User: Fold this.
Amino acid sequence: MLLDFKKQATGNIKAFLDEIDPIPTHPNDDNGDLYYGYISKGLLHLEDLLSGIKTPPNAKILDIGAGYCEMLLYIGHVLKSSNMHGIEVNQKYFTDTAPLLVKHRVPVTLYLCDYRKHDISSYDVIYSFSIAKKLPEKEEMYRYVLDNMKPGAIWIEALAPGLIDVIKKHKRSFDIFYSELETIALRAK
Assistant:
């Protein structure tokens, strides 16, 4: 999945991934192996899930908590989109990543900001990986995304404890088309 993508990447994206690769990708890890193992466990079916999603050509994709943008690039690759945007609140991730995205002309726009300060209403696909687990206000984050998604937009939240309960209480309707391993994929109606 993601590791295969990193091996198969070409051109500017490969150059970016090769340069970002030596940077530890998780605060508790020195070489990235544990992090990618964690991703693999949490996202076993991501490629199948993504390949079944119908999106407009060059869908506008947002990764909330983009980190070093590996998952954003992977999702853009699978969905065949170069219209990729990431939000990151961690200054270190932003400082390490943004110059390399520019250097290698990788088609990602990265924003350093809190998710609540970013207008998410124009995105076709919104992705986040375990972000809510790290936030004390996880239900607030869930509600923000649910409130502000445009009709027809897709949100994939990997490792999302409690999200189903928030969806059930929400005033809008959503089509949950995937729910496995605490990963939820839904489309706003």
Notes: The longest helix spans residues 91-103. The chain is about 40% helix and 20% strand. Confidence is low (pLDDT under 50) at residues 28-42.
